[in-house]
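S2.1 Query sequence (Leucyl aminopeptidase)
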Amino acid sequence: MSLSFAPATSEAWPLHVLSPDKVDAWLAQADDTTRRWVQASGFDGAIGAALMIPGPEGAPCAALVGHGTPGERARLRFPLAAAVPRLAPGIYRIAGGGIDHAALANECLGWLLSCYTFTRYRRGATDAPGAELVAPDGIDSARIEILAEAEAMTRDLINIPPADMGPAALENAARAVQETFDASISVIAGDALIEQNFPMIHAVGRAGPQAPRLIDMRWGETGPLVTLVGKGVCFDTGGLNLKPGSSMGLMKKDMGGAANVLGLAQAIMALELPVRLRVLIPAVENSVSSNSFRPQDILTSRKGMTVEVNNTDAEGRLVLADALALACEEKPDLLISMATLTGAARVAVGPDIAPFFTDDDPLAAALEQAARAAADPVWRLPFHTPYEAMIEPGIADLDNAPSGGMAGAITAALFLRRFVEPGTRYAHLDIYGWQPVAAPGRSKGGLGQGSRAILGALESVLEL
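Output structure tokens follow.
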């Protein structure tokens, strides 16, 4: 699917973006026929309102869309996108100054994202163009298209069911990105994970129908080293601590961290940022079989620390731990992990916000600022050091699932931090990766979350 701007054409219909307080002024300069048409139609500038204006021969000659009040716009990431589905198929150009210039790029991104559909499993479905937009002057249209395409890929990967998106398919998705951008890739799979000292990735994935693997992609030869680590649990039954059916239904999205880092990597490469990029994805399926890892097993990690397994459903932090340890062996300038890691994060901030953890205050500030600019909300949660005792079981160095149910997102993040070398510039994002209810620019289903904030932050903190 291509989410791109329409080519500029003189036949594009003018699109007037009006807030409620601007409707009367616009009507005052309209001709009598248009004024009567708009008034009879009840157009009031509300969010999502859309009205085609007929020309002398009845065919559309322009359109109005409502932009709502400031308070209404604050409730949506992409206010303009609310009206896009109500517009007739055709090509539009934004006329006048109805959108503040600071918001224009995000509104255009929202328009492109509103055209995303997932049709892989629908017979006869087509990607027939609907309402297309000519890129307005003054925006970086190429960048917006790159962000839209990266988001579309992330959504596609999450939306594909696990029968078609197991570890092998996730590897193929990474290889497709690698081939497009002339990156390099290596994959360690099956028992080779034990031989090359990735014991926890192997333990989690060994019961799956496809061999577990570690995907390692590199791109770029100069600049700071940026390493992205994404959780690639392609389906999570919970293992021997089996999830109830109500909790298992969305577990195709448990590779959302991997999907997000692949989308982010695609954007970084397409934008040709001056970095050395590394992407690490431990790809597994947490399945139930005779060789599933067990509660009370003690695993020895790549870093040498031992981990007592007190819940096989806390598997994501295990596979990430080995990947983080590998990442730190070459001292990256910036290390980011992304994972659909804990239900506790959803309880804390809900599905719309990506909580993040970092000890680096300038990085945190950059993430927060970039998130606001990119309409990609994040919220900082603490690496609360006093909770370290909660992840120390006594019988082993670490506990993968502390009892008590308190501070689940924080203890998971603290667990990951144990595998990051001190002094490493590091942030972890505990994402949801799913849009429960459709919203403007965000279809129900798989969702990129936090990636645009990370992109803006790394451009800032690394002074690219």
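The CA atoms of residues 204 and 315 lie 7 Å apart. The mean pLDDT is 96.
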